[in-house]
Specification:
- 39% of the residues are buried.
- With 173 residues, this protein is an all-alpha fold.
- The chain has one domain: Serine Threonine Protein Phosphatase 5, Tetratricopeptide repeat, CATH 1.25.40.
- It is globular, with a radius of gyration of 15 Å.
- Helices cover 69% and strands 0% of the residues.
Amino acid sequence: MWLSACAGTGPPAEIHRAARISEVMQVPSDAPRRGASLQILREALDADIQGQPDHALSRYERAVRVDPQNPYAFLALARFRLDQGDATLARAPLDQAQLLVEAHLRIYADSQGVGPSPTAALLERSRAHLEGLRGLLLRAEGREPEASVWLERARRLDPVIWGDAHLSASELR
């Protein structure tokens, strides 16, 4: 959906703040496991920020297991893996996060009336993170020209967070 819209060269994308997990937690969800997964995800980000990578990893993985339809859990796990220097293990959760965001946006587009829902708006705002993390993954794989394109897209979407071409746990929190 949004991925195809980003493929061409056109006017700069709208600048907006990328979604944070703390914002996602404030929007009620009809998915019964989502709240628990988001709470575990917040614990993972806190452990990550505090420099406890083993604890953070166990919490990221648990957040994914509790709600395997939570795109933010996969996004955060991919960010963690990239931050730890493991691009190979970052690819699957990043791909899953992207697929889930696209699927959820299609569902909201089909089921909602006039105007975007808060959940759909947050999903759309996660695009900056997905594009930036894709760029970091490509950079880690030595594919710098492609990486630069993705990172520039992320910078245009959220120049504050992606201005340094890095997404920290605190920026995602």
